[in-house]
Amino acid sequence: MPYTTEPHDLDARIRLAAFQFLATQTQLHGDTLPRTLLEAGFDYDGRRVPLIGPQGIFKPAILESIPISITTVPVIEGQERPYDDEVGPDGSLRYKYRGTDPNHRDNAGLRLAMQRGTPLIYLHGVVPGKYFPVWPVFVTHDDPASLTFSIKVDAATISPLIEKPGQPDVDARRSYVTSLVRKRLHQSDFRYRVMAAYKTQCAVCRLRHEELLDAAHILPDSHPKGAPVVPNGLSLCKLHHAAFDQNIIGLRPNLKLEVREDVLKEVDGPMLLHGLQDFNDLPIWVPRKDTLRPNNDFVKERYELFREYKPCLP
């Protein structure tokens, strides 16, 4: 039976209220939300509706049979995820069953969501305690052989209670939106894992204002080795990120900074002097754990590119 659009349907009204709650909270707090806020949820006619629970597939008590959210476990450097969510051959997000019993009530709930076209919330764990919410998402395929469901994302501006899957424009849109969301999730993962490793401070100047910090790649995205992993990352403020990307400053293999020679000789004002030149030959701050520190091979390769760079001088 298709998902109802009748206004009296409690399930539909609660899901729409949940989507509006997430829209409001992400406007207030940004793309990622703390677990405590998701656990508290929102009030609906005097009843609390949490959006996350102890299990990855979660149904609040107010709903009858279909979960409201599915949650992924954040990556912790050096540890394996208990569930290895991945991307399917059709570009969809893959979500593991709970356990190995296809008929477990949580798995049955997601199967029912697929059959009825019910929209869900996808809570992507970026670091412990923080989640990137994506909505609405739909279960599009069930594969008992691999114990996985396929998940696709639709545009949040489209009413998930009106348009039906199977129409070429709907399916094409969901595939496109899903590919965009995957990129955003990878970028968010990289940023928050780098920020956590560097204790939310610039590796050069130790600035601690998160809104002024970026996760910079040592080897860029376009490089064959430029994976979004912490050993290929540096936490840098906006100034030092731009200077690093533009080869104004380089990082030596001994993890000391090198200001480009022409910039080092330049005479300008206090920003150039104290913001860049004064850091020449000083070490950057890096995490203590070896698994989080900059990969030495990456640093060497990037430093060679820095040394080979020839600025276009007037």
Overview of the molecule:
The structure is a single chain. This protein is an alpha+beta fold. It folds into 2 domains: 10-195, no CATH class; 199-308, no CATH class. 32% of the residues lie in helices and 19% in strands. The protein is built from 8 helices and 13 strands. The strands form 4 sheets. Strands 1, 4, 5, 6, 7, 8 and 9 form a 7-stranded mixed β-sheet that branches. A two-stranded antiparallel ribbon has the order 2-3. Strands 10-11 form a two-stranded antiparallel sheet. Strand 8 (130-143) and strand 9 (148-153) form a beta hairpin. The N and C termini lie far apart (70 Å). Residues 1-8 have low confidence and may be disordered.
In short:
This protein is α+β, with helices and mostly antiparallel strands and 314 residues long. It has 8 helices and 13 strands. The strands form 4 sheets. Strands 1, 4, 5, 6, 7, 8 and 9 form a 7-stranded mixed sheet that branches. A two-stranded antiparallel ribbon has the order 2-3. Strands 10-11 form a two-stranded antiparallel ribbon.
